[in-house]
Structure formats: C-alpha cells, structure tokens
Amino acid sequence: MDLGIAGKWALVCGASKGLGFGCAQALVREGVNVLIVARGAEALEAAVEKLLADPGRPKDTAVQHLAADITTAEGREAVFAKHREFDIVVTNAGGPPPGDFRDWEREAWIKALDANMLTPIALIKATVDGMAARGFGRIVNITSSSVKAPIDVLGLSNGARSGLTGFVAGVARTSKLASANVTINNLLPGVFDTDRIRTMAQGQSQKTGQAVDVILDARRAAVPAKRLGTPAEFGAACAFLCSQHASYITGQNILTDGGAYPGTY
What is the rounded distance in angstroms from the CA atom of residue 154 to the CA atom of residue 238? Predict the structure, then answer.
C-alpha cells in the first residue's frame, strides 16, 4: 500500500533507538524526509547511519539529525531553527522511573509532566496551525498502555500521560484542525523489546533476585501473543496513522500490545 506521504517532512523525537527509531525507519521507507532528535549524540549518529543504509529508503529521502533535549525550551528552539515546518510530528520521550509515589517530591512530578505531557503539547502548539494552513498534518504521540490499564509502580507515567490523553481528546476534535485534514492520535505500546523494558527487568531482578531472562519470559507469557513487540511493527502502525489513508482517524488511543489489555473498551 502506498501511504501517500512521500516527500513530506517529519519530526521524530526520541528516535535514536527503540520505538522512536522504529517510527523513523518506517517513515523513511515511505519516502518521508525526517529530522530525528535524541539526547545522545553517539546513538543518534548510529541511527542516522542505519537509516541512510536502509535498502528500503528511496535515495532522495533526507535524513537529518539533532542531538538535543526535546523536553526543554532550548531543545525545541534548536529543532525549529534547523527545520521550521513539519507535516508529521511523532512525539516521544523516555518514561519516568518506576517507584512508590510516597517517595516522589514535586520535582519528580514536574519532570514527568514536562517530558510526557507538556512537551508534546508544546510541539502540537508549534506545528498544528501551519499544518492546517497547508491542508495536511499528522501528529502521533507515543504514550503507554498504562493510560488504559495503569501500572502501580509507574505512577509518574500514569499521571503525566493521562493528562496528555485528556488534552488530545479535546484539541484533536476541534473543527479547525479536524476539517483541515490535521489528525492527532496516541499510540499506546504494551511490552516491546526495547532498552526500557530490559532496564526495568534489571531493576526488578535486583530487588527480587530473579534472573532477567526469567522476568522477561514472564512478561512474554502474560501477553496473549506470547512474545514481545518489535520496534519495526510499532513503526508500521505509526506510519499508517501518518498516512493519507488515516485522515478519518483522530483523537484516538490505539493499543499495540499483543492483546494484553483485557477490556472491551
């Protein structure tokens, strides 16, 4: 299927690895020019090399990169100084650490809100009016399945991402955007084979004494698909939401979790 987005420009955040990289790769393979952003310069440069060497990338597709912290005003200013107008924006920032809410002071909450709620809102604010004026726009926020089924030790993430979800539910349905072919959706990953999942498994291993492989096997067993998701298939879902064919999908929370969420709605 031709997604009809070749030649568009996309900003993909947190794209040096994991789910962000999966999204960038899927878009590049569709002929979308990308600016990928992440904090770690070394990992980002390695990601650029992979994207440029990808045999599925049309030769004239641009891959730009910027090492910056997108959760800061300075980082966002640097992004828009490098490239101003985007047709597609994929927001993504590392999730806050797990823990007990009794241990979190105001600083921890503000940091989580900045990364997982206020930064996506700032990027939406900076880009949607230009998208509407041009008659095309796609914003995909990478959030978490915990928005639908909260995880007790991820209170910081539960709170911040739920705030973003509520905001998107309202703004995506404004007629000025929806009628101008500008969509805003949230992609909710379940358990994927990423560094974050392995880091969390290592933390659990230190607390419980269980081997990391045993913990990961238990995570796989809890998913009806009996496996972890891959960044590539997550990227494919993202690319479809960014496509011309997804123009009638907006304000939605789309789970990609191998069937793990047990609810009907």
Answer: 24
In sequence order, the β-bridge partners of residue 184 are 139
Both structure tokens of 179: 């009628």
Rg (CA), the chain: 18
Tokens 């568009």 correspond to what residue? 8
Contact 210, 166 (CB under 8 A): no
The strands making up 63-67's β-sheet, listed across from edge to edge, are: 63-67, 33-38, 9-13, 88-91, 137-142, 182-189, 253-256
- The one-letter amino acid at 194: T
Place of tokens 């980082």: 75
> pLDDT tens, 91-109?
999 888 888 999 999 999 9
CA angle 117, 122, 123 (to 5 degrees): 105
Q: How far apart are CA 192 and CA 172, in angstroms?
A: 27
pTM of the model as a whole: 0.94
Q: Is 38 helix (H, G, I), strand (E, B) or coil?
A: strand
End-to-end CA distance of the chain: 29
Q: Which of 144, 111, 139, 109 is nearest to 125 (CA)?
A: 139
In this predicted structure, the answer to whether residue 3 has a pLDDT above a threshold of 90 is yes
Q: Which helix (H) or strand (E) holds 138?
A: strand 137-142
- Helical H runs in 54-118? 73-82, 106-113
What burial letters (b/e) apply to 206-240, b meaning 16+ CB within 10 Å? eeeeeebeebbeebeeebeeeebbebeebbbbbbb
